[in-house]
């Protein structure tokens, strides 16, 4: 499996609100950011947290968000480590 | 389903305590809970993501009233019961 996103790629996070553990925090759902770099592959925590042993092993990316995008204010940035499943190409059209 | 642990960016919790607290544990039972969880993960009774899930599904008012390692102990009990290692009734004896 090749990495879907390259450093510098613009991405939009998923809007999901799953009934199980996830490592995409609520404040960062449906937000636009920029990929900084890949961080390595890990089993998807959302699946593994359900006690399943079939979790896909995905690239995890450092993704940079403007505070203004996350909270509507602030001049700083926040970098989150996010699994590939949490990220979409904002050009794909679906919202 | 937003959970009680997911409070990043929320207002009203006051300033973060960033004082330099170098003590890893503040009571012997905390060290035991830490060691117990490490052993159970290492032995494959459950994985770390299941553990985090069990912490997050605490009843919200209990979660907010509990200390860090009290939440850990709650999750260990929940998972030992769920995995059939011990029954909650046995733990309460």
UniProtKB/TrEMBL annotation, chain A:
Enzyme class at the top of the EC tree: lyase
SUPFAM superfamilies membership: Electron transport accessory proteins
Domain of life: Bacteria
A Pfam family reported for this protein in Swiss-Prot or TrEMBL: NHase_beta_C
Domain Nitrile hydratase beta subunit: 3-88
Keyword Repeat part of the UniProt annotation: no
Region (Disordered): 1-25
MF (Gene Ontology): nitrile hydratase activity
Keywords annotated in UniProt: Lyase
InterPro entries hit by this protein: CN_hydtase_beta_dom_C, Elect_transpt_acc-like_dom_sf
EC number(s) on file: 4.2.1.84
Protein name: Cobalt-containing nitrile hydratase subunit beta
Organism, as annotated: Streptomyces formicae
UniProtKB/TrEMBL annotation, chain B:
EC number: 4.2.1.84
Keyword Lyase belongs to the record: yes
Domain Nitrile hydratase beta subunit-like N-terminal, residue spans: 1-92
One term of GO molecular function: nitrile hydratase activity
Name of the top EC class for this enzyme: lyase
UniProt xrefs under Pfam families: NHase_beta_N
Domain of life (superkingdom): Bacteria
Keywords, sorted A to Z: Lyase
InterPro entries: CN_hydtase_beta-like_N, CN_hydtase_beta_C, Elect_transpt_acc-like_dom_sf
Record protein name field: Cobalt-containing nitrile hydratase subunit beta
């Amino acid at each position: 499996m090749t990495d879907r996103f390259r450093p510098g790629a613009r991405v939009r996070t998923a809007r999901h609100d799953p009934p199980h553990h996830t490592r995409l925090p609520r404040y960062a759902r449906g937000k636009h950011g920029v990929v900084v770099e890949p961080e390595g592959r890990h089993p998807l925590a959302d699946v593994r947290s359900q006690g399943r042993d079939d979790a896909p092993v995905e690239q995890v990316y450092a993704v940079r968000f403007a505070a203004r995008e996350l909270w509507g204010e602030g001049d700083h940035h926040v970098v989150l480590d996010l699994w590939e499943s949490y990220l979409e190409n904002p050009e794909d059209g679906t919202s | 389903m937003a959970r009680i642990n997911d409070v990043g960016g929320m207002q009203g919790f006051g300033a973060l305590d960033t004082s330099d607290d170098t003590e890893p544990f503040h009571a012997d039972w905390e060290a035991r809970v830490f060691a117990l969880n490490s052993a159970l993960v290492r032995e494959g009774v459950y994985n770390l993501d299941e553990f985090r899930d069990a912490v997050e599904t605490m009843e919200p008012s209990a979660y907010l009233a509990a200390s860090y390692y009290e939440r850990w102990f709650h999750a260990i009990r929940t998972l030992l019961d769920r995995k059939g290692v011990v029954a909650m009734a046995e733990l309460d004896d």
